[in-house]
Amino acid sequence: MQRTLKEIAKLIEGEVVGDDSTLIKGVCGIKEASEGEITFLANPKYAPLITTTRASAIITSRDVSGVAKPIIRTDNPSLAFAKVISSFAPSEVTHPKGIDFTAVIGKNVRIGKDAAIGPYAVIEDNVSIGDNAVIYAACFIGHGSSIGSDTLIYPHVSIRERIIIGKRVIIHSGTVIGSDGFGFATIKGLHHKIPQIGTVQIGDDVEIGANVTIDRARFDKTIIGNGTKIDNLVHIAHNVIIGENSIIIAQAGISGSTTIGNNVTIAGQAGLVGHISIGDGAVLAAQAGVMKSVPPNTTVSGYPARPHDKAKEVNACVQNLPKLYEKVNELKKKIEELEAKLKNR
């Protein structure tokens, strides 16, 4: 399959600068690309590669100019490149069709039109599965749960009882939704389990990575808002509320009853204590230890987390500690020498 730059630009609503008849036969990263392939530049740190890449054309942002080879300028190079990849290499994934004879289906289960249930899946009583939903092999859907239309659930996902999953949700393998919240009352050194009788509500267009755990609320709901994307190995505790279109990256942990706003970014291995709020548009940097609420549109980092500029100052001071230690020792010796001279007068 080959396309001209003109055809590709039309697909991604971009502007060609250079020869729009250039033929493109494939896609690749900017470092690995060969002649005849198109690549993209989204991160400014890779800008020097514009002059060394062997790609025949580059998808860039609107502000790029003065490039020796043809480019297509777009509003969002990453998104544009994703569209180009899909056009050159359509998805080859074939999802299950129909209901496998080994699936275990309980009583009063409503299965929508063209929904699919894979081998050895267990669907308990009173579950509702929407149209075109796909449930892969060995999944468990607890009683009274609801799965929205066009939702895709990969193998070995466990969805406990009374869970609500929205439309067009993607859940990757190994994820558990609706596990008990971690609640215990300690009396005389013994830990007594507190019943967790709430539920989890997942909005529309949410994607949940592999081996994520989302705990059910103690009484009400743990909520994941529409459009939020959750990476692998994230833990979301009971009664957490996450707004719309937020991003939560691998190994982040969110303690109970914390509220996350809309369009929040929580980077890898960030940890949040319970009962705080994170404002809309906030960014929590990787490994941030968030001990208190964060205002909207604020970037924090470090442990304990603080405004990023302040955290950088603190880190710079920490890096200078060895020199400071040496300087203090020098001053200490000088003081001792001066004290000795004064004493001998």
The number of distinct helices, counting runs of at least 4 residues, comes to 4
The description of the largest β-sheet is: 11 strands, mixed
Q: Overall mean pLDDT score?
A: 95
CATH class of the largest domain: Mainly Beta
Query: Which strand order do you get reading across the main beta sheet?
Result: 10-13-16-19-24-27-30-33-36-38-39
Radius of gyration equals 27 Å
Superfamily (CATH H level) name of the largest domain: Hexapeptide repeat proteins
Number of domains: 3
- The SS-based structural class is alpha/beta
Q: How do the helices and strands line up, and which of them pair or pack?
A:
Elements: E1 3-4, H1 5-12, E2 15-17, E3 23-24, E4 26-27, E5 37-40, E6 57-61, E7 71-74, H2 77-88, E8 104-105, E9 110-111, E10 116-117, E11 122-123, E12 128-129, E13 134-135, E14 140-141, E15 146-147, E16 152-153, E17 158-159, E18 164-165, E19 170-171, E20 176-179, E21 184-187, E22 190-193, E23 199-202, E24 207-208, E25 213-215, E26 221-224, E27 229-230, E28 235-236, E29 241-242, E30 247-248, E31 253-254, E32 259-260, E33 265-266, E34 271-272, E35 277-278, E36 283-284, E37 289-290, E38 299-301, E39 306-307, H3 308-319, H4 321-343
Parallel strand pairs: 4-5, 5-6, 6-7, 8-11, 9-12, 10-13, 11-14, 12-15, 13-16, 14-17, 15-18, 16-19, 17-20, 18-23, 19-24, 20-25, 23-26, 24-27, 25-28, 26-29, 27-30, 28-31, 29-32, 30-33, 31-34, 32-35, 33-36, 34-37, 36-38
Antiparallel strand pairs: 1-3, 2-7, 21-22, 38-39
